[in-house]
Design goal:
The structure is a single chain. By secondary structure, this protein is mainly alpha-helical. The chain contains 3 helices and no strands. Helix 1 runs antiparallel to helix 2 and helix 2 runs antiparallel to helix 3. It is elongated and about 45 Å long.
């Protein structure tokens, strides 16, 4: 498999994971209870963790610079904090 094919596969998976985060939050908002919404927030957290790994993989494979990785990682950590906070509020 050539580098272009690998990069395309990783970028396609990364796009799916990123889009899944707000999509699951939107779907969860349409549910009838905090418990149901919380389940979708947890799914969004899973997609955030998948995104985190794929960005790290891109850095390790030298597809992105350390500087770009650090910017992406900082945003990902902020999203994870927001999701944890939302989960905490839903369970209170």
């Amino acid at each position: 498999m050539c580098i272009r094919d690998r990069l395309y596969g990783i970028s396609a998976q990364l796009r799916r994971a990123i889009v899944s985060i707000p999509t699951n939050l939107a779907e969860g908002c349409g549910r009838g209870s905090d418990k149901d919404f919380g389940r979708f927030v947890q799914i969004a957290m899973g997609s955030t963790c998948e995104t985190e790994y794929l960005v790290l993989l891109c850095k390790d494979m030298k597809y992105i610079s350390d500087e770009l990785y650090n910017r992406f990682d900082s945003n990902i950590q902020e999203i994870k904090k927001m999701l944890v906070s939302l989960l905490y509020k839903l369970k209170s």
